[in-house]
Every structure is written in structure tokens, then in C-alpha cells.
Amino acid sequence: MTFRARHLLGIEHLAPAEIVALLDLAEDYVRLNRSTSKHGETLAGLTQINMFFEASTRTQASFELAGKRLGADVMNMAMAHSSLKKGETLIDTALTLNAMRPDLLVVRHPSSGAVDLLAQKVTCAVLNAGDGRHEHPTQALLDALTIRRAKGRLHRLTVAICGDIAHSRVARSNLILLGKMENRVRLVGPPTLMPAGAADLGCEVFDDMRAGLDGADVVMMLRLQKERMDGAFIPSEREYYHRYGLDADKLGHASPDAIVMHPGPMNRGVEIDGTIADDINRSVIQEQVEMGVAVRMAAMDLLARNLRAARDEEAADG
Predict the structure, then answer these.
(1) Is 293 in contact with 62 (CB distance < 8 Å)?
(2) For the CA atoms of 283, 285, 288, 293, what is the dihedral angle to 10 degrees?
(3) What letters, b where the CB count within 10 A reaches 16 and e where it falls short, cover 148-165?
């Protein structure tokens, strides 16, 4: 199996073959998760520490469940009450944890690059569960698996990513992954929520929702990241919904068999109409949640294999 990464810090450094290998393994875990007995022993004897410096429901629960289903010893660090609040630096925290000899470290942090910094200071495998506006690799991978299962392929599709692009690490990771897999990607949103130089990212940029959705195979909605906004980026939520919220009229411009996605949590009536979100014929939002567990199981499985191989090699060298 072609997957050589020591850490999963982003999509940027993954080759298309590595992405496919991870998704193929995730398919096996989808089947396991749907079986009566959902537990394996792939990570038996290994320790997984989850460090979430930002609030999370779906991602943290998904990683915890993934680790436990693979047989790992899983510990959730209460970062709100950690020594960081007493003045300890992030690096000192990493060194302290490293001394406990964990095998897998799952980290979400509000600062871009913080997870990469941690990975340089520890001897275990590190998984990025979202760092600032930088990347959220497992979200892009679970989105890719969801698309591949729904559309039968993960190439030469037209994907419209809509909403708050500027503040979204999900958009960045998906843009990189979908580009690697030869898809046509459109970014749709108001100019105030579009990153500088968006047109240079190998995608098309639209500020008109209907034009951006024209003929799209996949419509990926994003949450308004109000916690990352400093200033007035939109006139009002009502005006935003009128122009950029996904409703039946706007969705009608996409392909008749287009699927609707959202990474969650959703603001119904702001970025998406509740009826669209719950439409079992178009929405794959619940499938995204299910695929998240399988993808994170696959990611930790592959990283654990590489970790064990590296440790065996070190032991053989004396």
C-alpha cells in the first residue's frame, strides 16, 4: 500500500496515490463500522492523545470513536484547564506529552502552523484536526470519500465550494485535494469572504451563486466562521441568506443529480435551507459524519504502520 507519510498535517504533501490508498482502506472501515462487531485490534497496545485547543463536537468525537474501535488507549486532554493556562508554552506541553511516549497525537489549534510545530518536537505520529485557517486534512478526505461513494468517482467533477472561503481551512484542504484529483473547482461567495489571490489557486471564482452552481455535480456549503471575523464581512445574515444561502431555487441551477454537502455545524436559514439539508435524495451531510469515523480510522491505521516500521528499523540498527 502506497502511503509513506509519518504525520498527517495537511493534504498538500500527499500524492494522489496516497489519497486513493487511504480512501480504499477507509472503505474497509465503513464495512466494519456497519457490522455487528465494530471493534478491531489494529491499534492495540498504542496510545492516542487528543488535544483540542478549540471547541469541537464532530471531529473530536469522531477521532475518539475511531481510536477506540481500533483498540487504542484513548485519552482526551482538557486543554481549557491545561498548564498552558498557567503560562506553559505549546512546545513545553508537547515535550511533556512526548515524555509519556504516546503513539498518536491528534491536535486542533486556533493558530495556523501550530500542529506542524508540535510534530517537529515529538517522536509519535501527529494528525492535524484543524489549525487556524490553514488545513483540516481529515475533513477533506472524508468529503472525498463521500463524493466518491455518491458519484462513483473522484475525478473530472465540477465542485462548487460556497460561502465563507476566506476563513475556512475546510475550503483550503478540499481545494488542494480536489485539484490533485483533476476536478474543476469553483469558489462561490461574496468578495469580502474570498481570500486574496483566490483566482490564482487553480479554480474559478464567482460572486453570483446561481452562476457558480451552474451545472455543478457537488455543492459544498460552508459555515459562516463568525468567531474568526474581525469586522463586518456581510451586511446581515438575512441578506447573506438571500444572496448566498442554498435554497431550492439556487440548487436548481446545479446538475439534476448534484449532491449537497456541509462540514457542520450548520446554521440553518443562514447558509442552507433546512429542507435542502434534510433532503435524503440530495443531501449527503449525514453520510459525511459516518465517513469521518472510517477515514480517521484509516489515517491512524496507516500512520501506525509507518510508526511501527520506523521503530522496528531503529531497533534493528541498534
Answers:
(1) yes
(2) -140
(3) bbbbeebeebbbbbbbbb
Q: Degrees (nearest 5) of the Cα angle 92, 96, 97?
A: 120
List, for residues 214-228, the tens digit of each pLDDT value.
Answer: 999 999 999 986 554
For residues 20-29, average pLDDT: 98
Which amino acid type is present at position 139? Answer: Q
pLDDT at site 229:
43
Specify the 3-state DSSP secondary structure of 170.
helix
- Residue 283 has phi, psi (to 5 degrees) of -80, 135
Which cell numbers hold the place of 279? 433532503
First to last CA, the chain: 27
Sign of CA dihedral 24, 25, 30, 31: positive
Cα separations in angstroms, 290 against 20, 63, 65, 67, 104: 18, 12, 11, 15, 22
Question: What is the rounded CA–CA span in Å between residue 83 and residue 92?
Answer: 9
**Half-sphere exposure of 266 toward its Cβ, with a 13 Å CA cutoff?**
22
Tens of pLDDT, residue by residue over 54-97, are: 888 899 999 999 999 999 999 998 776 565 555 678 888 888 88
Tell me the residue type at 305: R
Give the pairing type, strands 73-77 and 204-206: unpaired
Separation of alpha carbons 256 and 220, rounded Å: 15
- Which residue matches cell numbers 457537488? 218
Please give the average per-residue pLDDT across 299-318, as a whole number: 92
